[in-house]
From TrEMBL:
SMART domains: MR_MLE. Keywords: Isomerase, Magnesium, Metal-binding. One of its GO terms (molecular function) is isomerase activity. The lineage of its organism: Archaea, Methanobacteriati, Methanobacteriota, Stenosarchaea group, Halobacteria. SUPFAM superfamilies: Enolase C-terminal domain-like, Enolase N-terminal domain-like. Belongs to the mandelate racemase/muconate lactonizing enzyme family. This is Dipeptide epimerase. It comes from the Archaea. It comes from Halobellus rarus. Residues 139-232 form the Mandelate racemase/muconate lactonizing enzyme C-terminal domain.
Length: 345
């Protein structure tokens, strides 16, 4: 038997976070808790994003029928069955389903008495470093943010672009972080020809790859950029569901998977394997999320090439602690408790 509950939490950010589509100062997450009849609790969280058709209100609206499914099945180890029945109960709503999926995985691993990565048999020594995101701001403020990030031990940086001064931004970041690995993310802001020109210019600054240079609604434009780009290309908004992996396989080098897009860990693992089958590299990303969600993604990180799991690091305060992250290093080997490691402070 399982009892279920959820609550909406408002998480102020340490600094206003801006991308090409807008600015965010507070993250609204919905935390889910599943408790078995022995009093053991699994925790997960939804970080809905309007760009994908979800809001905190829609998550709260669909969670009751979804949690009815969980209570009806009653077995946290029956993840595949529950996942199937959740899809039958409510169409779409991946962030809401991800919150339940993460809580189920947390509880199942706790009942077995092992960290989640050990339940899966993954190697914690292969976890890639996580990037730390430098959100859009004035060029000088982005320079300051970079200086602060470097001082805090972040040596992999993800720089948000999508302005008329993108090259100046990257130049400033590179000046402040001469030894850092730098990736950039345009969040669909460029035209195809503009994107090609930008890859040529950014190559001079040692940029590692460019994420989502053009709108997902323009697959031909994405292919145009891929065929002419001076840098590797990553698909984020263009790769949301499992069928998207083969659809983008001939027009990208990397797919960026996020639990809030995939609907949870189980589907994310399928997408990782699908990407491998198509010769793609994989980045594991996130929204701005509490550790109740981010911790689970950290356990999946041994399977991927790149990590962008800084969502909780951008918060001013978080009621949950998760997998230790020291600068850019995800210390999965230091997880000393069962489940995902997420715990209320």
């Amino acid at each position: 038997m399982l009892s279920t509950e959820f609550e909406r939490v408002s998480l102020p950010l340490a600094d206003a976070f801006t991308i090409s589509r807008g600015t965010q100062e507070v993250a609204e997450n919905v935390v889910v808790r599943l408790t078995d009849d022995g009093g053991m609790t699994g925790v997960g969280a939804a970080a809905p994003v309007g760009h994908y058709g979800e809001t905190p209100d829609t998550v709260e609206a669909v969670l009751p029928p979804l949690l009815d499914v969980v209570e009806s099945v009653g077995d946290p180890h029956a993840i595949e069955r529950i996942e199937r029945e959740l899809r039958d109960a409510v169409n779409g709503n991946p962030a809401a389903r991800a919150a339940i999926d993460v809580a189920l995985h947390d509880l199942a691993a706790k009942r077995l008495g092992v960290p989640l990565f050990r339940q899966w048999g993954l190697d914690p020594d292969t976890v890639p470093k996580t990037s730390f995101t430098i959100g859009l701001d004035t060029t000088e403020r982005m320079r300051e943010k970079t200086r602060e990030a470097v001082a805090n031990g972040y040596d992999v940086l993800k720089v948000k672009l999508g302005t008329d001064r993108d090259e100046a931004i990257v130049s400033a970041v590179r000046e402040e972080a001469p030894d850092a690995r730098i990736r950039v993310d345009a969040n669909e802001a460029w035209t195809p020809r503009q994107a090609v020109r930008m890859t040529e210019r950014l190559d001079a600054y040692g940029v590692e790859f460019v994420e989502q240079p053009v709108p997902a609604s323009d697959p031909e434009g994405f292919e145009f950029v891929y065929e002419r780009s001076a840098l590797p290309i990553a698909a984020d908004e263009s790769c949301v569901t499992l069928p998207d992996v083969p659809a983008v396989a001939d027009r990208t080098d990397i797919v960026n998977l996020k639990l809030m897009k995939t609907g949870g860990l189980a589907e994310a693992r399928r997408m990782i394997h699908a990407a491998r089958a198509h010769g793609l590299e994989v980045m594991l990303g996130c929204m701005i999320e509490t550790n109740a969600a981010i911790a689970a993604a950290c356990h999946l990180a041994p399977l991927v090439d790149y990590a962008d799991l800084d969502g909780a690091l951008l918060l001013d305060d978080d009621e949950y602690e998760g997998v230790p992250i020291d600068g850019s290093v995800i210390r999965l080997t230091e997880v000393d408790r069962a489940g995902t490691g997420a715990r209320r402070t």
